[in-house]
């Protein structure tokens, strides 16, 4: 039997192959406050509650207290009042799934909707597509303007029908970081008695503090009367460890439709407020500790640092030939178009210089582009980031196109997503550079991503499924 020390050393060694989660050079996936004191606190709180089962509120009353305090903190920030209710969930996707489920049940009970539809701008987070898919709603997407990246409020209103169970808007959107027309959409929904959800997963812990700092922002939260629910992630700009989000409802009557309970089986009586059954209370305790430690003052300071860095980055990017910030970002997420150098190469070049930027594939009028999530930890590194970005753009512009060679492109074009076999997809991925034996993606991902980018959506999705499945083989130990 290996010793504890040996196992922990093995885990530490594994981490060395990962992206750094701290230090401000990873501009996706991680949210770094840049305050080392927070990590120690969150980790200690996490371990203290890791063995507590958050499912059983009677057995573990500590969970009730922590959850109520966390929910009331975010409700106060986001336009809630004494009637507001909420739930602590495992993440943004779960919060969205729950809100969609509650809206679907509510529309059936109150308005008799039997063939429910979910209306959202085409920029809504993929979690809404997943919710529609899992929960049997038809997704109705409203096109967004290619330069502002937001939908016309009149188009949102026109898409709402008697079948609409829920209309969703983002504050801000993930892909472009822009604010959807929340109040106009919520008002149009309210006039038809339809549920409006605000996805503030990424913005809910930044926008209220930007406002406090004097930034002019339209109303986007529960202060808008037609908004019935709102999702906000604490594991993003709440700077909590992963697995921490909140879904808020205007009142308990709306939230009731989220809960699931069953006594129709031979085991113990079941009530599941969220999608999970047994769940560790670790993420809740860690989020609670970080909220208490930072409080509104700490979050305001962090928002000031992050927005200052974002503004500096925007100015720097606009000074780099061929780069352009897309839309008018409302907070700290940026979508950057690269006109001369292929953005997939730019991301690879940045990776070689120690930075991680995400790439987004072509969508509608948008060519593939770069995505940056700016957190306070990046602030001291902005000059270095901009200089490496300028170098990366120059280096990328000198590279040949990452698009597949004509024979590979023709092979991909001949594939039908509905009938193609896993083996055929695997050989296409291998030809584009996937190195299965290395147990991960190649260090330069541009050819693989370019292959995906050139494929129709359904085939892209099959290729991604194949790619991930080929890495997660369940072999080892
Ligand atoms: C706007 C928005 N909504 C939903 C999500 C999904 O959140 P999660 O990844 O926590 O499930 C994200 C994640 O980035 C997001 O930015």
TrEMBL record:
InterPro entries: GrpII_AminoAcid_Decarb (IPR050477), PyrdxlP-dep_de-COase (IPR002129), PyrdxlP-dep_Trfase (IPR015424), PyrdxlP-dep_Trfase_major (IPR015421), PyrdxlP-dep_Trfase_small (IPR015422). Pfam families: Pyridoxal_deC. GO terms for biological process: carboxylic acid metabolic process. Its cofactor is pyridoxal 5'-phosphate. Coiled coil: none annotated. The keyword Secreted does not apply. Keywords: Aminotransferase, Lyase, Pyridoxal phosphate, Transferase. The modification N6-(pyridoxal phosphate)lysine is found at residue 236. GO terms for molecular function: aromatic-L-amino-acid decarboxylase activity; pyridoxal phosphate binding; transaminase activity. It comes from the Bacteria. Belongs to the group II decarboxylase family. Sphingosine-1-phosphate lyase subfamily. This is Aspartate aminotransferase family protein. It comes from Thermobifida halotolerans.
């Amino acid at each position: 039997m290996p010793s504890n020390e040996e196992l922990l050393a093995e885990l530490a060694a594994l981490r060395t192959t990962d992206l750094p989660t701290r230090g401000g050079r990873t501009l996706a996936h991680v949210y770094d406050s840049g305050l080392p004191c927070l990590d120690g606190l969150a980790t200690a709180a996490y371990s203290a509650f890791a063995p507590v089962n958050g499912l059983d509120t009677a057995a573990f009353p500590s969970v009730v207290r922590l959850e109520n305090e966390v929910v009331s903190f975010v409700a106060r920030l986001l336009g809630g009042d004494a009637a507001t209710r909420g739930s602590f969930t495992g993440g943004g996707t779960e919060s969205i799934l729950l809100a969609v489920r509650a809206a679907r049940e509510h529309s059936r009970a109150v308005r008799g909707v039997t063939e429910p539809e979910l209306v959202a701008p085409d920029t809504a987070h993929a979690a809404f597509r997943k919710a529609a898919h899992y929960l049997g709603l038809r997704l109705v997407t409203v096109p967004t303007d290619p330069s502002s990246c937001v939908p016309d409020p009149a188009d949102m209103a026109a898409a709402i029908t008697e079948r609409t169970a829920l209309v969703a808007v983002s504050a801000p959107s993930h892909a472009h970081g822009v604010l959807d027309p929340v109040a106009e959409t919520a008002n149009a929904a309210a006039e038809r008695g339809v549920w409006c959800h605000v996805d503030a997963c990424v913005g809910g812990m930044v926008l209220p503090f930007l406002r406090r700092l004097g930034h002019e922002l339209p109303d986007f939260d529960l202060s808008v009367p037609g908004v019935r629910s709102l999702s906000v992630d604490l594991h993003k700009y709440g700077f909590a460890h992963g697995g921490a989000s909140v879904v808020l409802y205007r009142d308990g009557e709306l939230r009731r439709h989220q809960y699931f309970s069953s006594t129709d089986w031979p085991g113990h009586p079941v009530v599941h407020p969220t999608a999970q059954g047994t769940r560790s209370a670790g993420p809740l305790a860690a989020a609670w500790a970080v909220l208490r430690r930072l409080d509104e003052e700490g979050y305001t300071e962090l928002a000031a640092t992050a927005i200052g860095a974002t503004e500096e980055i925007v100015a720097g990017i606009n000074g780099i030939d061929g780069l352009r910030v897309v839309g008018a970002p409302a907070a700290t997420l940026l979508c950057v178009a690269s006109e001369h150098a292929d953005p997939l190469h730019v991301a690879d070049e940045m990776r070689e210089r120690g930075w991680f930027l995400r790439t987004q594939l072509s969508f509608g009028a948008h060519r593939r582009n770069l995505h940056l999530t700016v957190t306070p930890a990046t602030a001291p590194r902005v000059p270095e980031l901009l200089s490496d970005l300028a170098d990366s753009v120059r280096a990328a512009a000198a590279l040949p196109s990452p698009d597949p060679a004509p024979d590979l492109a023709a092979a991909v074009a001949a594939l039908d997503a509905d009938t193609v076999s896993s083996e055929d997809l695997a050989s296409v991925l291998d030809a584009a550079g996937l190195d299965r034996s290395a147990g991960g993606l190649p260090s330069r991902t541009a050819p693989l991503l370019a292959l995906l980018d050139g494929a129709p959506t359904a085939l892209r999705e099959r290729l991604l499924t194949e790619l991930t499945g080929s890495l997660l083989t369940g072999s080892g130990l």
